[in-house]
Amino acid sequence: MRIWLALALPLALLAQGPANNTKEAKGTKTRHAKSTKARLVKTSTTARVADPAPAVPAAEAQQPGQKAEVQPEQKKEEKPAESPAPVAEKAVSGYIDLGARWVGWAGDRNTYRSVVNLGQGVRLVGMDTAYEPTGSKWLDSARLQMFNWGGDPYNTARLDLLKRGKYRYLGTYSNVAYFNNLPSYADPTLAKGVYFDQRSYDSTIRNLDNDLQIFPGGRFIPYFGYTRNSGNGYGVTPLVEVSNEYALRNVVDWHNDEIRGGLRIEMRRWHVTIEEGGRRLDDNQQVYSTGPLTGNRTTPYLGQTLTLTSGQQQYRIRSQGEYTKGLLTANPWDWLDLSGSVVRTRPKTDANLYQTQNGTLVSPVSSTTFLTAQTDTLYGNATMPRVSWSAGAEARAAGRLRLRESFESDRFHTDGTSTLLSNYIFKNGGNGTSTLPDGERLEVSQYREQVEALYDVLKHFTIRGGFRYVWGDSVMRASSFSINGPTDRLDLKRYSGLAGFSARPFSRLSLTGDFDITNGVKTYYRTGLMDTNTYRLLGRLTLPKNFFFNANYLYFTNDNPDPGVNYHYKSQAATGSLQWIPNSGKNISIVADYTYSQIKSDINFLNPASLTPLASPYRDFANTGVLLANLRLPFSKTYSGRLSFGGSFITTHGTRPTNYFQPQGRLQLPVTQRLEFFSEWRYYGMHQELYGYEGFRAHTYTGGVRLLL
User: Fold this and answer.
1) Are 238 and 283 in contact (CB under 8 A)?
2) DSSP secondary structure string, 94-147?
């Protein structure tokens, strides 16, 4: 027992740290003093104390009738050794990457910008810094992250401020340069050799999100948030007229603001969140022509060549609405879990449209009458109250049996009115006006109920079975071809059988399977879910030497056998991935991934000119692969670099064969303990067999330095 105490005493001193060394030293001194006193009583006054111990005060050691001899080493007390001062941690840590990129490309510039869109020049490649002050009353930690600033199409920033038990602020910002101008998309003039995308965009989208929590980690957590999304830029969009359409310049300008606040209540067995918020959308668009246009029509109409001398369109949309949200999770007993949510919204929208056209036009009232000018003014508004709620429960009825049930409800309706005022100037002289009142009615109710049972057959083998029922109804305005009246009533009804398993035959292997077979009775849309089959299999195998192998397989079909639709859709994908991460990736790590996928789609549609049924087949068979390797370059015991290389590829054949390759390499070399050099090369190559004019090749090289803080 004394041996264990002797070993435990130094460990206890080390565990309590420097602040308790003095106190422990005093206690040790007292114990040694009492032991020395007892020994002095048993020995003569001239005997020396054999045990090395601190000096004993004379008043405490002297006995009646005896004179204790004080030894020289007992005259001075030994002071406890002072522990070294702790090394202060750095208040600022992280890194900053500064560099520049050079881009060399060949091929179609618009396709390159639509797919890659990386620019060149000096930029902030990345920054991840943390600040942890000592003794601050207002801040415990701050972290700032910024990536791809200085001309890249996607810039991000993130700021995290924390004072434990007081507040936490999280702000994120992203800036997206959205460019989309593929020559083969929405281009009716393609047959004439004119590559002009009539649905193109060159705009910027900005997203800002702020979230503030008060008393995080407590039982009552108030929070507030503000989100703003905005977009502006230019594009091309068609102005549709009777028997012709004209591609015009489009000015994009919109923003959406949301303010929210709520309270989270975190108790031991239940959690509640109550939130109130509101949104406001301002959307403004201007469409205008820059000169006379003949449009997409290549032949005369009733002997007249249709032209648009000048055209302009402006619309203004204002939408606002409040919402209320409530969430609940509870565990009243160890064998029962409950959850529920409810969301109620009531948005309102007002819209105004003003449009003018001049030229040789066809009257929308009479297809045989020609106009020289037309002016349209539209006023409209709509409201859409909506209530969505859900509830769920999981009960552990027995040691191996679990029961789950969930129910969802979503109901909304739209009430809208509009009035269109039109003025016409006829080509043969005279003018006319028309007023067209209109309205919109849409009612949708949809419900979903699901029941499942899970049973642990063995310790590492669980099976699952269940049933899902989805139903609903909808009322909407009928199309001009409908013979059922001004409105159409549609129903939704689907029955699904669910099954699955989860197995772990041994510690290194895990298998999971999910199966969903649905029998659809009715659906809203021609391509909506009807008769579906969904199979999903996942496996994970842990091999020796830190090898990890994952395999996934997904199979999905959707069939609508209605004679007027004849829709068949099938997709499947098989994925295998291998990871090798020895020593937690300190020296080497390799990740390889391969996926084979296919999509088949067949549906009938009506030829707009003859109203005869035609078939629309689509096929896509794809091979996708990724290989990434990371190697440590040990130059010395304290200096090491990093070499990363690999890339990805995708090859498809079918309706639109495409090959896309992206190899890459990165070298990171240390210069000093706080300075590193990095160099990165990437190649982008895209080729389409049927659309060779959309191919491109690009080399990008980025070089810079990393500053370690």
Assistant:
1) no
2) EEEEEEEEEEEEEE-HHHHHHHT----EEEEEEEEEEE--SS-SS-SEEEEEEE
| Tens digit of each residue's pLDDT (9 = 90 or more) over 296-330 | 888 899 999 999 999 999 999 999 999 999 999 99
Residue in this structure with the two tokens 């930690």, named with its chain if needed: 141
The residue written with tokens 């193109």 in the block is 200
Q: How far apart are CA 473 and CA 413, in angstroms?
A: 12
**CB count, 10 Å around CB of 644?**
16
pLDDT for 210 beyond 70: yes
Kindly report the pTM of this predicted structure: 0.80
| Per-residue DSSP letter, 186 | S
Q: Which residue has the tokens 């009807």?
A: 530
Q: Is 577 helix (H, G, I), strand (E, B) or coil?
A: strand
Q: How far is CA 520 from CA 225, 517, 536, 611, in A?
A: 42, 10, 20, 28
Show me where the domains of the chain are located: 2-74
Query: How far, in Å, CA of 643 to CA of 664, rounded?
Result: 11
Other beta carbons less than 10 A from residue 687's beta carbon: 17
CB neighbour list of residue 498: distance below 8 Å, 6 or more residues apart: 450, 452, 464, 465, 466, 467, 468, 514, 515, 516
Look at residues 208, 122, 240 and name the one whose alpha carbon lies nearest to residue 702.
Answer: 122
**Among residues 369, 356, 352, 351, which one has the least CA distance to residue 239?**
356
Nearest Cα residue to 557 out of 596, 521, 520, 594: 520
- Amino acid type, 656: R
CB 408 within 8 A of CB 447: yes
**Which residues touch 506 (CB under 8 Å, ≥6 apart)?**
none
The pLDDT assigned to 42 comes to 40
- Amino acid (one-letter) located at 403: L
Give me the mean pLDDT over the 524-542 stretch. Answer: 94
Structure tokens belonging to residue 528: 């909506």
Can you give the pLDDT at residue 295? Answer: 86
Residue 434 to residue 377: CA distance in whole angstroms: 11
Measured between alpha carbons, how far is 463 from 468 in angstroms, rounded to an integer?
Answer: 17
Instruction: Identify whether the C-beta of residue 687 lies closer than 8 Å to the C-beta of residue 697.
Output: no
Contact between 388 and 342 under an 8 Å Cβ cutoff? The reply is: yes
Q: How far apart are CA 279 and CA 255, in angstroms?
A: 11
- Cβ-in-10-Å burial (0-12, 13-18, 19+) of 672 comes to exposed
Q: What's the length of the chain?
A: 709
> Which residues are bridge partners to 52 per DSSP?
none
